[in-house]
Design brief:
mainly beta, 65 residues, 3 strands, 8% helix
Length: 65
């Protein structure tokens, strides 16, 4: 089960961001995970999401290669 972070915006929208790959996804050449999403954190952000007119989030993906 890969670990994700859920970003909650003031407009009511939410976005999921990958924090860490699970063992199976790390060893798969295409990083495919067939397990359920495991949310490690919920972060409430004091702004609107990008599609509702908020600023673009420039958050690094922790699991990026």
């Amino acid at each position: 089960m890969c670990q994700y972070e859920k970003l909650l915006f003031t407009c009511g929208d939410e976005e999921c961001r990958l924090l860490a790959y699970c063992h199976f996804a790390r060893n798969d050449p295409f990083h495919q995970c067939f397990g359920v999403k495991k949310f490690k954190k919920d972060n409430a952000l004091p702004q609107k999401c990008e599609k509702c007119g908020g600023p673009k989030l420039d958050l690094p993906n922790m699991a990026a290669e």
